[in-house]
TrEMBL record:
Natural source organism: Kurthia gibsonii
Keyword Transferase: yes
Annotated InterPro entries: Aminotrans_V_dom, Aminotrans_V_PyrdxlP_BS, PyrdxlP-dep_Trfase, PyrdxlP-dep_Trfase_major, PyrdxlP-dep_Trfase_small, SP_NH2Trfase/AEP_transaminase
Name by which UniProt lists this protein: Alanine--glyoxylate aminotransferase family protein
Claim: Zinc-finger is one of the keywords in the record: no
UniProt-listed Pfam families: Aminotran_5 (PF00266)
Molecular-function GO term, any one: transaminase activity
Length: 386
């Protein structure tokens, strides 16, 4: 009996991905491994609709965040951070560590930042780049990138998108023009452990031509491992060596990406939208309240406020005893809410199981709930797909 890992990443890993992971380790420059690595990089490019360059290397999402910044913005230049929570905020100390001037617009937790606030801030200074977190994992808020991209590009800044909790569940099409000519996403950075559904450990990042040109305009960057110059030849021909890639994780990533591309982005986007809407409807039926309004709520995870009298550590411990693992909330919401992931390889059956167990735990804790009503709400959204 497996545990159901419904935290907002890492997420459930399918058995075929584990099988790939456990294949015999090959030499990292072995042409047979190089083919697998190259295929993984090509699939990454296909996912983002053919950006100029893509990098898949050992590291977590935070390394990918760092790569996005150090390769495009130099010391003394300005970065605007659009933050919908804890992970948006992370770009502030990260960029400051490299001597970059940083301004931040912070949303009230659970709300989106308005396009107007961004337009106003962009008038104040000349920004080299703007970061937006596609889904902030602390709040379950999805950023309205369709509105923000043209505004940022009109101001002449690079648009950097943190896709760690979004990639493969929300559209991140780097060839698409948003509202005006040339208004495209410049950088998408992500990790392997969320909607992609592979184990944690890979930093994944794609650059547009404009972002590559920004790197070329900087002679040196204050990094070595994170400098894309050092990785370019490896991404082009993985029989080359810069630093040893995580061979087995690449096997797993190749398998996970095949699953992603086979399902197709259109189907994945719809599936995740349905998951988000359905699970929130079910939890609302238990008297719980999502932090974000439905218009701003993410398809990949939900941050759910507890009803009066539900103690966080008791609730989560009781759920864990039943094999369902959810996450606590971060910062000032700690103890007041929990976070549940619904992405990647997660199935409707897994989510139904979670809904039933959550209902039973609430009953055990003295709350009167109707599990049947929650399941009905869930199935109404998913229709015959559940
Ligand atoms: N950005 C977002 C949106 C995240 O959710 C996370 C991790 N939860 C990160 C960045 C950092 O990624 P990692 O923990 O893999 O370094």
């Amino acid at each position: 009996n497996k545990e159901l890992l419904l935290i907002p990443g890492p997420t459930p890993v399918r058995d075929d991905i584990y099988d790939a992971l456990s294949q015999e380790t090959m030499g990292h420059t072995d042409p047979r491994f190089a083919r697998i690595y190259k295929n993984s990089i090509e699939m990454t490019k296909e996912l983002f609709n053919h950006p100029a360059e893509a990098y898949v290397i050992s590291g977590s999402g935070t390394l990918a965040m760092e790569m996005a910044i150090v390769n495009t913005v130099s010391k003394g230049k300005r970065l605007l951070v659009i933050s919908h929570g804890f992970f948006g905020d992370r770009f502030v100390p990260l960029a400051k560590a490299f001597g970059i001037e940083v301004d931040v617009i912070q949303a009230e937790w659970g709300k989106q930042i308005s396009k107007k606030a961004v337009i106003e801030q962009l008038k104040q200074h000349e920004y080299k780049a703007v970061t937006v977190t596609h889904v902030d994992t602390s709040t379950g808020v999805v950023a309205n990138i369709q509105e923000l991209i043209p505004v940022v590009k009109r101001a002449g800044a690079l648009f950097i998108l943190d896709g760690v909790c979004a990639t493969t569940a929300l559209e991140e099409d780097m060839s698409k023009e948003y509202g005006q000519e040339g208004a495209k996403i410049d950088v998408v950075l992500t990790g392997s452990q969320k909607a992609i559904g592979a184990p944690p450990g890979l930093a994944i990042i794609a650059f547009s031509e404009e972002a590559v040109a920004a790197r070329e305009a900087l002679e040196n960057v204050p990094a070595y491992y994170a400098d894309i110059h050092n990785w370019r030849k490896v991404m082009d021909d993985p029989t080359a060596y810069f630093a040893t890639p995580p061979v087995n994780l690449i096997y797993a990533y190749e398998c996970a990406m095949k699953i992603v591309l086979e399902e197709g982005m259109e189907a994945r986007v719809e599936r995740h939208e349905n998951y988000g809407a359905a699970i929130r409807r079910a939890l609302i039926a238990y008297g719980m309240k999502p932090l974000a309004k439905e218009e701003a709520a993410a398809p990949t995870l939900s941050c759910i406020l507890y009803p009066e009298g539900v103690e966080d550590h008791v609730f989560r411990a009781k759920l864990a005893d039943r094999g369902i693992i959810v996450a606590g909330a971060l910062a000032h919401l700690s103890g007041k809410a929990f976070r549940i992931g619904h992405m990647g390889n997660t199935t409707p059956q897994m989510l139904e199981q979670a809904i039933c167990q959550i209902g039973e735990v609430l009953e055990e804790m003295g709350h009167s709930v109707t599990i049947g009503a929650a399941l009905k709400a869930f199935r109404e959204v998913l229709g015959s797909k559940a």
